[in-house]
Amino acid sequence: MDAKKLKVVNKPVRKMDAMGLACGEPAFTDDMDFNGLLTGKILWSPHAHARIKKIDVSAALKVPGVKAVLTYKDLPRVPHTTAGQGYPEPSPYDTYTLDNKVRFVGDRVAAVAAETPEAAQEALSKIKVDYEILPAVFDTFEAMKDGAPVIHDEPDSKNIPDASRNIAAKFDFEVKNGEWFKEADFVFEHKWSIPYLQHCAIEPHTTIAYFDNFGRLVLRTSTQVPFHVRRIVAQALKLPVKNIRVVKPRIGGGFGSKQEVLLEDITAALALKTGRPVKIEYTRRETFVSSRTRHPSVVRMKAGVKKDGTITDAEMEITLNTGAYGSHALTVMMCSGSHTIPMYRIKNNIRFIGRSVYTNMPVSGAYRGYGATQGFFAWECLMDMMAEKIGMDPVEFRRMNYIKLGEGSPVFKAMGEGREGVEQVITSSGLFEAIEKGMAEIGWKEKSAKYAKPQTGPVRRGIGVACMMQGSGIPEVDMASATMKMNEDGSFNLLVGAADLGTGSDTILAQIAAEVLGIKADDIIVTSSDTDITPFDVGAYASSTTFISGGAVKKTAEKVRDMIFEVGAKILDVKKEDLRLEGGKVVSAAGASCSLGEVANTSLYYYNQHQITASASHFAHTSPPPFQANFAEVEVDTETGKVKILDYVSCVDCGTAINPQLARGQNDGAVLNGISHTLSEEMEFSSNGTPLNASFRRYKIFSAADTPPVRTFIIPTWEPNGPFGAKSVSEIGINGPLPAVANAVHNATGIWLFEAPFTPEKVLKAIKDGVRKA
Amino acid sequence: MKTNSIIEAKKGFFEIALKVNGERRELSVRNGEFLLDALRRHGWKGVKKGCDTGDCGSCTVILNGKPVLGCLVPAVAAHGGELTTIEGLGSVRSPHPLQEAFVEAGAVQCGFCIPGMILSSKHLLDNNPSPTEAEIRKALDGNLCRCTGYVQQVEAVKNAAKKMKRTSN
Amino acid sequence: MKSIKYYAFPSSVKEAMSLLLDRKYKAMALAGGTLVAKTLPDSVETYLDLKNVPIKGIKLAGGNLVIGAGATFDEIDRSKLCRSWAGGVISSAAAKCSSQLVRNMATIGGNIARPHSFNIFPVLLLGLDAKVRFACKTGTKLVDFQDLYSSGAGLRPGLDCLITEVIIPAKTRKWGCEFIKLAKTESSWESYIKLFFAVEKKGKFFAQARIAVGALSPRPFRAPAAEKALAAGETPEACAAALAAELAAARAGDYRCAAAANLLKRFVKSV
Questions:
Q1: For C185-198, what is each residue's pLDDT tens digit?
Q2: β-bridge pairing A492-496 and A710-714
Q3: Chain B contacts of C39, Cβ < 8 Å?
Q4: Neighboring chain A residues of C3 at a CB cutoff of 8 Å
Q5: A157-179 core/surface letters (b: 16 or more CB in 10 A; e: else)
Q6: CATH, range C58-171
Q7: Is residue A432 part of a domain?
């Protein structure tokens, strides 16, 4: 099958929530007013590592308007993880809603609820805490040494592989076919690093907890994972799941930071304590310090290559800083290898060594790219080093080695997310075409020839390439479901647990259902996601929604189609098998037809009275990777170190783009996020772990004026395992800019950059050091 | 609007009179409150709080003809002024051409930054009906977006400019 | 924002001054508000909003360029007069302030009222030999910008006096100038360094040379040795070396020294 025959899928259908959002309709968590709403605020640790010896809240409780003050003494002590992952979560259970120990500057100490924000703030200032300050450790390599402070010395944490050495997660894996590097003509080994990076969703994390008229707890919250929130809040506060409802309104971006139970437990605890609705809304500073970040990483990578271009061996050792808690510590670390190493064929030996290490720093977590960003920075730069050494064009070198249709990798089976993976082969790939298109758009041949000639003047130009893959959901872990019901006019309600956080998933899921049912997408009314109303879905992460939730919607629509045929056959007096759905009608082979409205009315009022409705679930045995080829053209001012991107071309194979316009938008955004990582972003800390630039003023994300030309091209392929040939698109694009720009800077100047971001200061230093060496 | 040259807070509130989206309104605003919080408290939820430090532009409103940061303007400063929020531009039933253009171009992902960005764009097109791409990017550089990469938003403003010129001719 | 008692909208400098000096009000002036609105001192009880005070105009007076203290960055950016002055350096500097929304609000008066390393105009005004006119208790006062930033001239702008005008002297009209904000990104609020270079050409020589350096500290400073080298017609390399030495003495660090020296070299070659 190919996409040409599709009527709704693969079309730029209008994003269904867009107009309301563009008109400022009250759609987000905080856009609803609640009578008697209290403001919740959290007291944050000023110390990187300390034990609470004494905590006195009596003065805080006396502040007029204060309704509750909670400390660790008031709550059940339940070790859990904040990572919104499938149960049982592969992240260590090392977190307590409130604890008698603080582990980073910005850790929770206590929480208050008060009638006004001012009263809540005043109460915080009146909580007296007597800390026993403990030695702290900020560097992963220091933290693993003998005698380093032990951050998780509590006896009741679970699933920490080596708490005494601050190891939150570890994974080693080796394929051995002979002696290491024996066949290699050249061997390279370097280290690449990425600093603390924040998601910077423009809507800060917000939760409102209130009670419905049955006294059940309702959490209206900015989350990517409503069902995991329900489960983890129930676990942490020892509540029955049935007493909690989680409502996801429109979400102002997440990028992984909202795949996390950050506020829901403590907001719920305050609501339960006061019996009143309570809101906690992070300030921007709190979003930087006390939500989640990308895992800072050091990737040491060593690889061997033969003169003919064969990659003989590859070893990747990744050390992630997970901060004070191990949220996503194991899985991000494993994905840094499992999403990257299979990219190229490695003839003999493969080794992966992964460690996620606790430090007294802010907590890392899921972030778009999920480890692949860290891994590809190393792998794709190393590819260029090897190509240069053997005198091969970097594009040709990649073409020779990248994973092809029908090929597998031992890594797929060995490395899953927190456990063994699933064996798979590549069932669709447009990488060849993506590279062709990208080369043409950027002008690879002419420009690489031009920039190979000696350049004069202080400003040098260069061109670089990077190829990437990602996954589409977690095979045999992620599961999604959908429910549809038919209305009298032939429209349908589609209820999905999938969490649209601004990605447009509601729209593309409607398109999938509409394609099956032969109707327009706007004949489908989508509800996402409410744990009381919509069926289960793991949530919006791991690039799973299109592939997994899309699969569930397609199955559901097919079941509904079957029920429609049942009734249609009766109305038209033909066999079910002779019917098809087209243009809002049931049509027979002979050309007779009846409208869907007639089918609905017949089912509701006349024939075997019933509601046409169905539910279905979907999980997958594979995770077909999308592929990308990215090309960057840069200008480097060798006298100031300033790197300017002149053109950035990103060609993405996401199978069938269910909605090409939205897919392009996903990729543009991912690429710019990656570019911003590459040239600007970095959280800075003082020597005692205090964040120094926790604001948009000082942690600079790219504005419209800073942004270089970013050009996304969608390369259509057909993925047989995906709904209408689709694979994922949301994450992959963020992995390209670091290596593509590093390779382009090398092409322009001859220097290699190993530490993100590539600030003018670092670039100028690298140029100077390079000149000194030469 | 004509106003007294000095007003006094009573019981922690200033009583201010202003025009919001073309309608005369009298509002009580706290004496330590910024325009962003006052507007949200009075029901204009289209004004968003993204940073509260003047760096993201989600709280953009047009005050006396200029897009400004609602989180940096004391609420009382709007006394006697004319204010346009996103709610004053158009509605789902009857959208402004810019709202239409943003939706058509796929420029709305999470949508949190969009009201501010549309107001900045409106001011641009009101004063410069045929902006260049560089002028569009400069006019929008205070409205941060993390979802889109700005590509489709710049396209939307270009498309809206064409459409608005056609209808005004 | 700190809670306040009064909010005043004076419509003349005279009215503003009388409110400012009236002890009953404990007033502080607010121009664009982008810097002070969130950080009002505890002692202040009245906000003095200057938006109706007629100190916004940009005009030529006696050959000098006179910019009203209430002119916003955006107005300065768009002003034809500013764009024509000294190669348009004043407008292009205004455009380099963080974002359009801030440029719509922030004023030149507010930008120089208190020294901050991220301010845009001080480095420029220092290099252009600007003067600043104040309204104060005793009437008006004209102060060299340089003195305002070195000694403070005994003035506390916004608390006991108002900045009303910034005067750029006529002699600078034809100067060849460059303003550079070297930062991670174009719209960064902060920068590694801000540089202002200017020369007045007389035939083959430079009659005047100015080099001002900002962002290293709240107060910008001039680089006299490099200026001297520039005015003496020394080689670009020699000028650059002089600047690098002066920056090193100011503990600017290797990067800033090297980049600034390179940028000066480039400027000298270009003029």
A1: 988 999 999 999 99
A2: unpaired
A3: none
A4: none
A5: bebbbebebbbbbbbebebeeee
A6: 3.30.465.10
A7: yes
